[in-house]
Write a structure and sequence with these properties.
Length: 235
């Protein structure tokens, strides 16, 4: 919780946290989405504010109640910017990152979006018994941020993987390298784990490919472990 006793080790830092899941419209009433609730990202934003940072939370389709948790305890130190699609997220995050010391991309960004957005509802009458959607790749936002980062700016990516054990770690190492981020926070997800849950289990991969942190606990505990790893890499 906030208040006396909590280390203000992020004081003076401006941080950006993206959270939630983008939605890519298909037509005026439908979208392609994902199961991210935004809870881990919100916990990261709250933890950073509690530790003294000035926070911009770029939120994609996060439940009002979950966002309410942010405005509750740390009002005034978190600015919330709401976005819908991956392209909107890219604009908002890139904008906020220009003055930031740390950027944490916890959002689940759609890898692809419909090549065309229909002006009116797709109908069965027009489509028949089979529908093929053409998708185009979205830009990799965090890789773009890492490529453009200023000296002293720390870029952190998240990865949700359905593999486990050594394979999970190897995939995470390759992903960190490919995106050239300072830290990659990886957690295992599946049909029954990782989403809509209170707890989380993570491994943080650092620049040399080593394990910079490893923890399991509440989303707040995980958030604090991520900020501890950020503070350690910036020393
Ligand atoms: N990410 C991003 N822009 C995208 C896709 C992902 O910035 N278009 C970010 C996410 O916010 C996250 C990190 O990249 O911080 C890893 O996302 P992930 O989906 O695990 O990686 P991908 O490179 O999309 O690989 P995969 O094929 O495993 O989905
Ligand atoms: Ca992806």
């Amino acid at each position: 919780a906030a208040g006396p006793g909590r280390a203000q080790d992020l004081a003076g830092l401006r941080v950006v946290v993206s959270a939630g899941g983008t939605r890519e419209p298909l037509d005026p009433v439908r979208f392609l989405g994902n199961r991210s609730s935004g809870r881990q990202g919100v916990a990261l934003a709250v933890a950073a504010a509690d530790r003294g940072a000035e926070v911009t939370l770029v939120a994609a389709h996060i439940d009002g109640e979950v966002i309410g948790e942010v405005l509750g305890g740390v009002r005034g130190r978190v600015t919330v910017v709401s976005v819908g699609t991956a392209l909107e997220m890219q604009d908002a995050v890139t904008d906020a990152a220009s003055g930031a010391d740390v950027v944490v991309m916890a959002a689940a960004v759609a890898d692809y979006r419909p090549a065309e957005v229909a002006e009116s509802k797709l109908t069965k009458e027009a489509q028949g018994d089979r529908l093929t959607l053409e998708l185009v790749e979205n830009p990799d936002i965090v890789a773009g941020l890492a490529a453009a980062r200023r000296p002293g700016q720390t870029v952190v990516a998240f990865a949700a993987e359905t593999s486990s054990g050594d394979e999970l770690l190897e995939r995470a190492r390759r992903k960190r390298e490919r995106k050239d981020v300072d830290l990659l926070v990886v957690n295992e997800v599946g049909w029954t784990r990782g989403f809509e849950t209170a707890d989380n289990e993570i491994v943080v991969i650092g620049r040399a490919g080593g394990v910079a942190a490893q923890t399991s606990g509440s989303k707040r505990e995980v958030a604090d472990a991520v900020w501890d790893a950020v503070v350690a890499t910036r020393r």
